[in-house]
Automatic annotation (TrEMBL):
The lineage of its organism: Bacteria, Bacillati, Actinomycetota, Actinomycetes, Micrococcales. InterPro entries: NTF2-like_dom_sf, YchJ-like, YchJ-like_M. Residues 37-131 form the YchJ-like middle NTF2-like domain. This is UPF0225 protein CBZ_18840. Belongs to the UPF0225 family.
Length: 135
């Protein structure tokens, strides 16, 4: 299934913004628009993980750190995203960081990934560079 059609436009967006998929991450994943901020890109990347859209993840990964391939674990179900802190990464910045916790389930186990992600803007587009995973 095409990840960008996995949700109807009027469904709640997986990123937790409170918006609909069609008014939030859907247009980004479909390539109809670009993320205006680092936080918007991070949220759309979370949604791409939740929907299994490896192509979008690779296309929004900075060329200097982008993996050659990306295999997503089908057993991981991403449940909730909480943004903890945003530093810079606005529409007039060239870099920014977003700290978040992404909660998931894998089989009977539940877990949380806490990361401070780094982003850069080049040619008017935001890209994920890398991140520090924390406790």
């Amino acid at each position: 299934m095409d990840p960008t059609t996995a949700l109807p436009d009027d469904a709640r967006c997986p990123c937790g913004s409170g918006e609909t998929f069609g008014g939030c991450c859907g247009p980004l994943l479909a390539g109809r628009s670009a993320a205006p901020t680092a936080q918007a890109l991070m949220r759309s990347r979370y949604t791409a993980f939740a929907l299994g859209d490896a192509g979008y993840l690779r296309s929004t990964w900075h060329a200097s750190t982008r993996p050659v391939s990306l295999d997503l674990d089908d057993d991981v179900v991403w449940r909730r995203l909480d943004v903890l802190d945003v530093r810079a990464g606005g529409p007039f910045d060239d870099a920014g960081t977003v700290e978040f916790v992404a909660r998931y389930r894998s089989g009977d186990a539940r877990g949380a990934l806490r990361e401070t992600s780094r982003f850069v803007r080049e040619g008017g587009r935001w890209f994920y560079v890398d991140g520090d995973v924390g406790p």
